[in-house]
Design goal:
Blueprint lengths: L15 H22 L5 E6 L4 E6 L1 E3 L4 E2 L6 E2 L4 H14 L9 H13 L3 H5 L8 H5 L11 H9 L7 H7 L17 H12 L75 E2 L1 H12 L8 H8 L4 E3 L4 E3 L4 E6 L3 E10 L2 E8 L4 E7 L6 H23 L2
Helix pairs in contact: 1-11, 2-8, 3-8
């Protein structure tokens, strides 16, 4: 997805205070440059490694009111939510609740019958009976995406309506681009269906069904230490502006036509895209997921999630694992794995570097018609700046 500079690593190690100063200066410059390119929109960037964190911001979190962005401002993270959903499902696999290659209709249909009087086959036809848990998480079901420009227009015209996961599966196209397992095709529909796995096997013993709106998505996050993950929320009801509090500043998001999403529902597709967080917590989450194992998943499960399952997605043109995108691979710089997010009014991208053991998150409240022309360029600029500093610092 991005080119990586070829750099030699020196043997000296820069002390953290000096290194932090270099990173802060470089990332501030990136944030300022990118904000000025995109209508003074907010750009927040967070770097995290075992030594500490660097958080910077530029631009406005509210462009009309000219309110300056701060590093701890919360943005909607969009599809970066899929990392959390995938980890939650894989935790159930690790506990033996169900298998990674189990058929999803047998697991989910009892839940759908209880709460929506339907089945997956009734909605999607017989091909859905071939779909496994692995297919869902790796985007290899062959299902098409429910999200569309028509849905954006409808949501804008009905800003206070919170689209439910049952709405999503019923408005999703009921046909497949290929047989399950035979192609990769990015579709957020998969991760809404994956959410039903979590609500169908809830409770302390994972043997209880709960209504979708009672499932706590934040329960998958590692136990908080101090202020870690304090900003992470998962809106299911209410507009974006309703999540603004005295202790939690929320950015106003802007769609490609410049319109605000402040008074539009923030539920973002539930388990496929509704995480509201700041860049620092997004970087922490990604570091805890892909870094030293144990915070989310064991080393064995992490290998399944991040290393061995990458397949090509034809519509997105990326290599995709189980809720994980292989964002960059270079023998000198290491792997960068994580996820991007695009939702109404916001873009985000976050990754973990396997060689230098750091995570990097970039978020903005400005949405362009083409994701990679905006967020892809922002992440690339920040990532290359970090690599240049770390390689020279012997880290």
């Amino acid at each position: 997805m991005m080119s990586v500079l070829m750099m030699a690593v020196t043997m000296s190690v820069t002390p953290w205070p000096e290194l932090k100063g270099k990173l802060e200066s470089a990332l501030t410059l990136v944030a300022q440059n990118e904000s000025s390119r995109w209508n003074d929109s907010s750009v927040t960037i967070s770097f995290l490694n075992s030594q500490g964190t660097v958080d910077v911001a530029a631009g406005y979190r509210d462009i009309e009111k000219e309110i300056d962005a701060l590093p701890n401002d919360s943005d909607l993270a969009g599809s970066a939510t899929k990392m959390v959903t995938s980890a939650a499902v894989l935790q159930l696999v690790e506990k033996g609740v169900f298998g990674i290659d189990d058929n999803i209709t047998k697991l989910i249909d009892p839940y759908l019958m209880k709460y929506n009087s339907t089945t997956l086959e009734t909605i999607f036809g017989p091909n859905i009976t071939r779909v496994t848990v692995r297919h869902l998480l790796s985007m290899r079901t062959g299902l098409l995406d429910y999200d569309s420009e028509a849905l954006r227009i409808w949501q804008t015209e009905h800003p206070g309506y919170d689209i439910t996961p049952f709405d999503v599966i019923h408005i999703s196209p009921p046909y497949f681009v290929c047989y399950p397992g035979e192609c990769g095709w990015y579709a957020s529909t998969n991760y809404v269906i994956a959410g039903f796995l979590l609500t169908a096997f809830s409770g302390p013993n994972h043997d209880t069904m709960v209504p979708w709106y009672e499932y706590r998505q934040a329960s998958v996050l590692p136990r908080r230490v101090g202020a870690e993950y304090a900003s992470c929320e998962f809106p299911i009801f209410g507009t974006l502006g309703e999540y603004q509090t005295k202790s939690n500043n929320v950015s106003n998001g802007y769609q490609p036509d410049g319109s605000s999403v402040w008074n539009i529902s923030a539920n973002g597709g539930w388990t496929c895209g509704n995480m509201l967080t700041n860049a620092g917590d997004l970087a922490r989450l990604t570091y805890d997921l892909y870094g030293p194992p144990g915070k989310f998943l064991s080393k064995a499960m992490l290998s399944i999630d991040a290393v061995y399952e990458f397949r090509y997605l034809y519509n997105l043109k990326v290599l995709y694992g189980l809720g994980t995108i292989l964002m960059s691979a270079d023998p000198n710089a290491g792997y960068l794995v994580g996820h991007g997010g695009a939702t109404y009014g916001f873009y985000s991208e976050v990754g973990f570097n396997s060689k230098f053991n750091f995570s990097l998150a970039v978020m903005t409240n400005h949405e362009e018609p083409v994701y990679f022309s905006n967020m892809g360029e922002m992440m690339s600029a920040a990532y290359l700046a970090v690599l240049e500093i770390l390689s020279g610092a012997g880290q």
